[in-house]
Amino acid sequence: MSGGKAPGGGRGRRARVTLRQIADEVGTSQSTASRALAGHGYVAPELKARIEEAAARLGYVPDISARTLKGHSSGLIGLLVSDLRNQFYAQLAAGVEQTVAAAGHQVVLVDDHGDEAEAVRGAKAFVAMRAAGVLLAPVGREATELLVGHGTPVVEVDRRSGVRGCDAVIIDSESGAREAVGHLLALGHRRIAVVVDETVWDTGRNRLKGYRAAHRAAGVPLARRLVLDLGLRPDDPRRDVAAFLDANPDVTAVFAANNVMAEAVWQELKRRGAAVPGRCSMVSFDDLTWMRVVEPGLTAVRQPVYEMGNRAAQLLIERIDGGHGRAETRTLRPELVLRGSTAAPASAPGADIGAS
Amino acid sequence: MSGGKAPGGGRGRRARVTLRQIADEVGTSQSTASRALAGHGYVAPELKARIEEAAARLGYVPDISARTLKGHSSGLIGLLVSDLRNQFYAQLAAGVEQTVAAAGHQVVLVDDHGDEAEAVRGAKAFVAMRAAGVLLAPVGREATELLVGHGTPVVEVDRRSGVRGCDAVIIDSESGAREAVGHLLALGHRRIAVVVDETVWDTGRNRLKGYRAAHRAAGVPLARRLVLDLGLRPDDPRRDVAAFLDANPDVTAVFAANNVMAEAVWQELKRRGAAVPGRCSMVSFDDLTWMRVVEPGLTAVRQPVYEMGNRAAQLLIERIDGGHGRAETRTLRPELVLRGSTAAPASAPGADIGAS
DNA sequence: TTCCCACATGGGATCGATGCCATATGGCGT
DNA sequence: ACGCCATATGGCATCGATCCCATGTGGGAA
Predict the structure, then answer these.
(1) B37 CB less than 7 Å from any atom of strand C
(2) pLDDT bucket at A93, cuts 50 / 70 / 90
(3) Is B283 helix (H, G, I), strand (E, B) or coil?
(4) Looking at domain B173-303, which of 3.90.650.10, 3.40.50.300, 3.40.50.2300, 3.60.15.10 is its CATH number?
(5) According to the model, what pLDDT value does residue B353 have?
(6) Which residues in B lie closer than 8 A to residue A271 (C-beta atoms)?
(7) Which of A63, A109, A150 sits opposite B13 (nearest CB)?
């Protein structure tokens, strides 16, 4: 509290402050200075106080690389996501950061843009920096395998690559999808489209599975033509949705498998002036800000994304300091939030949403 | 390719692979192995090939801490933002990450939640890890001073703390606000409210300044009662907006100084069934997804946030590898995007938006 | 008095990559 | 025959914190 000026005082300050300099300043050895500042072993209280004072006065900040080199692990935690511009991943990153920071570690962030080669490069960087652990939303097996092979603790988030030896925290896509589609079926819809952009990861696959399961449970036959799979990173999903609706003008409801698809569907329905839910109901998997702000609000499967980030980071940290039990997968339950975009289908059979 | 198996092969792999082991494997020295892999100095081509093969075969990944310890700087770049859950900062982070990754560095992400003490802790961590440079949206002077004092290159983003010796990339808040409010004035509005949540940083301050400048330019008198300042991190901004509208039922347009305020204003206008723009026009500073999705679309000042992240990272990297010129501030121009939420005020004088 | 132990401090090896410097060889010019 | 330089390789100090071990001191018990 008293004299502790802001270290550096804005001056040139070329010389880095090391333990050595603290020791010289006080007239003791590095060993003792180290013990004093670390709080281990014996140091006379008076000397310890002088060392701490000198450290504060000179603005000493220990060098993490030196510590890491000796101790075999930096405090850094890697986080690999697929698209930070997507609110989903941003929320996830925020949740992770919060827990990691609370535990006194830092997050190293890498965005692989859904590209496995970039993911592998990120994983290599994590190994190189001796990251204490890594959290990732896998885009393939390779990155996870590389990390696990190097003995780095890994927790997968949102999806699983299937690599053995790593924990995972995921959201139950199948039951969320089943509930959402079940809701539409219960309202009386019989021609429900599903729009996905990937079925290579277990998220997309399981949402599709849930869609089918709901149909089976309701005894409603499935039609392959009602499944619109745009493939990863489509150029202009809205246009694809438009073409699909032209080809299938009889659909009365759409289930969008993620927030990107939901936006495309919503925009296209608005563009062609199709009343929601009058002519066409819709449900989104993943609930973003805009979905509760638009008129009518979108019925959506809310995923506890931020919490998923918290939990995953928590699990990783437990694994890092000592947990050697079996790898486990924790599953979070999503929640269907009913809003205005879903209603019973129009009774008039002629009212379809095809192009004018 | 040929034999290059996935390193580690999933087995236990206890022993870390170091340069030493590569050297032993090939029957040469660390020095030579280092030169071979780094590409500096003399190494016989045949020997170099054998060393590279051994490195690949054993899955050698150089230890960054050792390199950092020797070289005085890690390749890490710190990024300090105020709230990752806010799309604005998420976009910013995405832009930064992209440029940083392209330059072969990594981003260390810290979210200070707008709290200066946390920002200082983050800054200390950056110094400790010998970050090559730091990007931050300042929440005070202290973090920047600490970093600059330790000789770490700093680029401030979105706001400036006023600390000398660091670059900055910002968006011209004042002119953006002037344009937005000028647009409302040109439409004939004379009682335009402005809603801000901070005037302590230069963003909020300059947006308010732009609001005033537009009024002066149009010769419209300012009324203090039309300025709603909620202060940082208000509990329930929507309620505050409601109280404000009750107290000032004669406003015909609202200028929201950022995306959080815009959401509160929008929600409240919708809640009380006030037609937009029929009874009340509105403009947002900052343009998010939902603003173009709602009906009618929100007129907004679009900020090139992602690009700001790119540019800031670019500037920092230039500064890191050698740029020793004077600190500079680059200013990006925002752009007013006209959508449906702004129109001429209702001619009927009695039509106000007070509580029912 | 002697021994032991708690207390206290310093010496120095260690982590792994880097890069300077010493050493060594062979070819070529004078 | 001598020297020089390009080529090639290894030895070793270095970066800074940590921690084991050696050393040293004083007090209390036997």
Answers:
(1) yes
(2) very high
(3) strand
(4) 3.40.50.2300
(5) 61
(6) none
(7) A150
A296 prior amide bond cis, ω within 30? yes
Which has the higher per-residue pLDDT, B2 or B46? B46
Mean pLDDT of B232-255: 95
Domain A74-171+305-333 sits in which CATH superfamily? Response regulator (3.40.50.2300)
Confidence of residue A89 (pLDDT cuts 50, 70, 90): very high
Distance B175 CA to C23 C1' (A): 69
Identify the helix (H) or strand (E) that includes residue B38. helix B30-38
Strand C atom within 7 Å of B62 CB? yes
Segment 55-94 of chain A within 8 Å of chain B by CB: 59, 61-66, 68-69, 72, 74, 76, 79, 83-85, 87, 90-91, 93-94
The reply to whether residue B108 touches residue A111, judged by beta carbons under 8 angstroms, is no
C-alpha pair distances (Å), A342 with each of A185, B26, B49, B271, B282: 11, 68, 65, 20, 29
Specify the pLDDT at position B14: 46
Q: Give me the DSSP letters along B294-326.
A: SSSPPEEEE--HHHHHHHHHHHHHHHHTT--S-
C-alpha distance from residue A303 to each of A137, A289, A295, A314, A340 (Å): 15, 13, 21, 18, 19
Q: Do domains A74-171+305-333 and A173-303 have the same CATH topology?
A: yes
Alpha carbons A288 and A294: distance in angstroms, whole number? 11
Predicted confidence (pLDDT) per residue in B253-300, tens digit: 999 999 999 999 999 999 999 999 999 999 999 999 999 989 899 999
For tokens 């976009």, the residue is B91
With a cut of 70, say whether residue A192 has pLDDT above it. yes
Q: Which amino acid is at A111?
A: D
Domain assignments of chain B as residue spans, ordered by start = 19-62, 74-171+305-333, 173-303
Spatial distance between the Cα atoms of B327 and B315, rounded to a whole number of angstroms: 10
Q: Would you tell me which residues 303-332 of chain B have a C-beta closer than 8 angstroms to some C-beta of chain A?
A: 306
Rounded Cα distance between B37 and B100, Å, is: 24
